[in-house]
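Entry 14. Structure prediction run on the chain below.
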Amino acid sequence: MNRPKIILDTNICSDVVNGVISPDEWKRVRQHINAHYRYWISFITLKELCGRLAKGKDEFFEENKKPLRVLYEPAKIEFLAYPVTFALRTVLGVDVSRRFDRKYARTEEEFYELIYKVVLRASSKRQLKVLGVPNPNSRPKIITFDLDHFDSHEDGPQKTFAERFKKIREGKVKNPTPRMIVEGLLEDLPSDCVRTGDIPTPTAENYEKLEHSLDAACKHICNVAGLMKDGNYDISKPKNENNWGDSMQLFYLCDESMHFLTADKGFHNNTQGSPQQSRILLYKDFVQSF
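Output returned:
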């Protein structure tokens, strides 16, 4: 029998570095994960930690890499594709990829893993962007990577998400429904995402499959949209601007063996009634369980 899968939320990595989670406790958690789960790295967690690194000053580059190192500590690591393409592959069985390195036949997941390892090897953002980092085990032998461009590009969907929610508050667009959300997945999928095969047909059957498999993510998005009616809720605040990333993390739960470990109780608050909520593991409860 295959062991269940688990991914970490960004806040877990930060709490380990900041001392909120003690070294001894984190060691026990890693041992438990290694013994009972298959460990995967979420693209969203990787994206958010790389974004923080990009926004930091070069003099703190090594210090700011610590959460990224925490992310890599559990054993037998696998990298996940972008949440939307992961969901379309898992639920509808279509072979889509957000990016594919044709020159080196590198898959989306392999690209994310390569970038992660190169970032950790770099001594500064300048080396990473201008001088390049040695990559002895595969081609090319020297790799450059622009963290600032990556951060700006990957923040695009988050900014679009925030703009749509501001329009909800202004009454310019309707509150989203699960059907509207899954329809958007197929309508917004760019044609260059397709590696082989066709974009999935937008049929009622496919919509129903996606609604069922993305239940927690849809509930999270709809509940956050409902908060827009509260005049005190500002989606542009740092605490709230991560709502896009939070919703995207829950896309991975379309894999029935996937579990999501987080220190944020908001995930439970915004997924009430979802059968997938039991696979959103709150850190304190997770530690107490063993």
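The two ends are 21 Å apart (CA to CA).
Filed with the rest of this week's runs.
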